[in-house]
Amino acid sequence: AQEAADAQASKIWSLEDCLQYGLKNHPKVIMADQDVKIQEAALLSTKASFDPKVSASMNLGNSKDQRRGDVTSFHSNNSQSESVSLSKKLYDSGKFQLQKKQSKEALEAAKKDRETTLISLAANIKTMFFKAQQAQSLLQVKLETLDGYEKHLKKVETFVEVGTHAPYDITKAQVNVANARVDLISARSSLKEALVNVGNAIGVDHPIHVAAYKLEELPQIDESIKVDYVKIALERPEVKSSEARLRAAKYRINEARSSLKPSISSSAGYSWSQTHTPQDRGWNLGLGVSWTIYDGRSTKAAIDSAKNSYERTKASLDNLKLNIDSEVENGINDIIDSAQRVKANEILVKQTSESLELAESRYDTGLGSPLEITDARFDYEKAKGNLISAYFDCLIAQAKLDNTLGRMPKEYSLEKAVEELGD
Asked: 214 — phi, psi (to 5°)?
């Protein structure tokens, strides 16, 4: 077991690995599965309420009487009885059908909630995975910055030794190296935190190692597609779940109104009983009508409660639909903005790289100053970090938009998941 745990801890996880594992093993998925099974059992229980009920019973008894006379004697009596009964509800003014419809809608809502859980969990896994890759890439930038400052320090030491530069330049270069090491410590801490978050997102209690990112073509999107995306988002499982709950709430109102209506039930039985054989036998048939004429204000309270529940569910659905428009618009804008920042920072990285090379050349020839080197490297590091942040912000924005639209990630292979589940 320890070897298996160590192997899992040292494994390099791809995004597909994280999705396949998390969407099968995360506690949220298991809870959603159980919610569906609970509603399936509730529907079965509701259907069973109209099924015939058969029961059987048997009683054995023994009694002794003490009689006093010339001779005290004990008399023993044995008794035995058996019975079989059958009962079935014949009519309940439509309550059964309303309860069955409620249970079916509750089951449909639970299934859609499970889909919502999977989609939301997948989006969170992608987000945490990209943030971990982002932290890895930013750490690499800090390592390159430290390496550049250390090389510059060695160069300055040589220049000062031969007398072409002032000793102050060594001090300035050493300060730059020290600051770069502090930044590196902070970047490593951020990476550790990001890896813990990825582990938590897929449902493991330890950090995992994620694969290094590979540059891919960023998602392209246009604002004109918003109307189509809003229509897609209105069909996502979360909306369908709320609509099912709204229908169930409406059925609940009708059920409450039928509380004062009559119900009819039937019964039949056969019994044997006697203290000796042959036993006496009997049978019975019955038809019962139950009709609550007045129950105080219980029915009115039940109707009012059901109506309030319906109105609240309707308001919740309306609020969800109202938020969808802004969620889609914000998702589209986030992708467009981050893609534009990527293009702008690509130009900036090229420009700051040329400025850094020029500053180093000027310093090597004695025309530049240490401060010019520091500023140029700082600008280059900042531009490169901003480029990486913008790149992953675009990927994260796409993951969030997929969640808004109710779509599973393209990296998730359903066929592979079904195959693994079968194994």
From this structure: -120, 130
Confidence (pLDDT) at 353: 93
Strand partners, 86: 54, 268
Above 60 in pLDDT, residue 71? no
User: In one letter, which amino acid is 150?
Assistant: E
- Check residue 3 and give its pLDDT: 58
Span 375-397, average pLDDT: 93
What is the pLDDT, as a whole number, of residue 272?
Answer: 75
- 283-325 pLDDT, tens per residue? 888 888 888 887 778 888 989 999 999 999 999 999 999 999 9
Burial 207-245 (b: 16+ CB within 10 A, else e): bbebbebeeeebbebeeeebeebbeebbebbbbbbbbbb
Task: Give the closest residue to 85 by CA, choosing from 270, 279, 289, 287.
Answer: 270
* Least confident stretch, 8-12, 176-180, 273-277, 300-304: 273-277
Mean residue pLDDT of the chain comes to 86
Which range, 49-53, 58-62, 252-256, is most confident?
252-256
Distances (CA, A) of 171 to 10, 102, 164, 165, 263: 41, 77, 15, 12, 95
* Three-state SS sequence of the chain: CHHHHHHHHHCEECHHHHHHHHHHHCHHHHHHHHHHHHHHHHHHHHHHCCCCEEEEEEEEEEEEEEECCCCCEEEEEEEEEEEEEEEEEEECCCHHHHHHHHHHHHHHHHHHHHHHHHHHHHHHHHHHHHHHHHHHHHHHHHHHHHHHHHHHHHHHHHHHHHCCCCCHHHHHHHHHHHHHHHHHHHHHHHHHHHHHHHHHHHCCCCCCEECCCCCCCCCCCCHHHHHHHHHHHCCCHHHHHHHHHHHHHHHHHHHHHHHHCCEEEEEEEEEEEECCCCCEEEEEEEEEEECCCCCCCHHHHHHHHHHHHHHHHHHHHHHHHHHHHHHHHHHHHHHHHHHHHHHHHHHHHHHHHHHHHHHHHHHHCCCCCHHHHHHHHHHHHHHHHHHHHHHHHHHHHHHHHHHHHCCCCCCCCHHHHHHHHHC
pLDDT attached to residue 363: 81
Spatial neighbors of 261 by CB under 8 A, at least 6 apart, are 92, 93, 94, 95, 291
- Using CA of residue 389, residue 392, residue 398, residue 399, what is the dihedral sign? negative
